[in-house]
Structures are given as C-alpha cells and as structure tokens.
Amino acid sequence: MKHLIKKTGIILLMLALAMSLSAKAKKTITKKIKKSAKTVEVTYPKSIVTLSPAAAEILYAIGAGDQIVAVSQFTDYPPEAAEKPIVGGFDGKTLSIETILSYEPDLVYLSEGMHNFLIEPLDSYGIKWYLSNATSITAIEKEIMDMGELTGHQDEAAQVVAQMAEKLSKAYVPAAAPTEDDEVEALDSTIKVYYEVWNAPFMSVGSTSFIHDVIVNAGGKNIFDDLTDAYPMVSDETIIARAPDVILIPMNNGVSVEDVKARAGWDSIPAVANDRVYIIDDNVYSRPAPRIADVVLDLSELLNN
Fold first, then answer.
1. Stated pTM of the model
2. 3-state class of 229 per DSSP?
3. What's the average model confidence in pLDDT over 225-233?
4. 143-146 long-range contacts, Cβ below 8 Å, gap at least 24?
C-alpha cells in the first residue's frame, strides 16, 4: 500500500511538472509570435538625384516627382522637372560625387554605361542607387515597376505600364511567318530602317538598344539588327549597301533632309530616292521612359502609311 501511494505521488508530481513546463512553453511561443507580428515600417527615399532625363520622366509619371531634389542637364519633361536644380551633365563628364552629395540624396538614379563610375563612391558613403539598363521596351516597363516599389508608388507604376501596353497593342502587328513559297515576297515588303545616332563618325542602333525594339514593334526592320553593340559605329558604305527604305535623323544632330540627300552615293538609297528621310524628335525617341509607347505608335504610322 505504501508503495502504491508513493508511486501515485511520483506520477502526480511528474504531471504537475509537465503542465508547468507546457505553460512556460506556451508563454514563450506567444511572446515569439507577438514579436514576429510587429509592423515593420518601410521608409521611402525623400531626396532622389536623377542623372538622366528619362529617369526624371519616369518618377514624375508615377507620382514621385516631389521626391526629386536635383536632375541632370537636358531634363525638360514634364515642364516642372526643368525647374529642379541641375546636378551636372547627363553624359557624366561634368558630374562629381561631391556635387551629388551636396544635395544629401538617399537615392541616386544612374544609367548603365554612363554612371557606373559613381557606384563605388556611392557605396562608400552608404547611399542607395539604382542602375537603369533599358535594352528593350520590356526592360523599360520593368524599370517603371522597380521605381514604383522603391518610391512607394506601386499602384501608379502599374497604371503607367498598363497604359503603355494599351498603346503598344494598337501599333502595327507583323504578319505571320512566311511560308517557303512567299518568303522572298515577304522579305521584300519589310520596311528597312536606318536610325542615325550620329554622323561623325556614323553611329546607329544595334539589337541591344531599346530603339531597335521600338523599330521592331512599329513594324520595321533595323538594318543593323545583326550588331550586338547598343550604338555601333558603322560606315556609310555599309549604310548604302543595306539600302534602308526609311532613314530617321534625330533633330538635335543638326542635320537636315537636304544634307542627307547631298551625301555622296546616298542618292541610290531607296529612302533618299523615295523621299523617306525623316527628322524625328530625339527628346522623345531617345528616352527610355513611358512616352516610348507613343513613339512606337508614331513610328508605326510613319512606316506603314
């Protein structure tokens, strides 16, 4: 009997101890859950320095214009962007880390190839940066969404991209792939486009430039789509040999239609012979920003009418 009482007592003691440990465990779990449920406050940049006209255009388009404290030279769209202080030239030649730091930025908006030299010093000062690398229209759309997330304007960014998609859907849609019988005819009907980035030396656009993507989406064929450099140097002999049907000359290059027609040997080019040399507004055509969808529509009409 004594043994039974003793054994019962031990069992009750073990049960009590187990219940005590279980209660402590529950308290610990509860504390951990409460701790993990704390709201994490997200802070968005309030002082952004944009180093390209396209960067400022994107931020204004998504409603983040008031977060910009300084812009680069040639930033003129929207009009209120031109009223911001200018931090330096877009090409990086007149940019310095000291000037950028004077605006006390918490984010600097860079462009690939132009501003990579600023990454290391910005890192050393603990300043966040975003590197634009717009190689296509899809890349531009992604960049807009990225900036929406970074600045706290996700919904506005999604709306801008949706509006772009709607416009792009109205552009020329290339015909289905030709069969073997009609391949020659289909190739002959393709509108070949030469986009002149510069003329001394001659520079055009390769397959990794968003302008190449604009030409394709508008229903044309970039005559230098076999070159992988974004903006390759080319020879006038090659331009003549590839016989573009349309020539696009940026307005800011200072070259007129008459200048192009007067170039030696260019009279044999179909675009020159058929008066299809056009001066285009490169302040819109050459900026990887939301208005690029309007450029596709504009070029589509130009090529296919």
1. 0.82
2. coil
3. 97
4. 143/58, 143/288, 144/58, 144/61, 144/62, 144/290
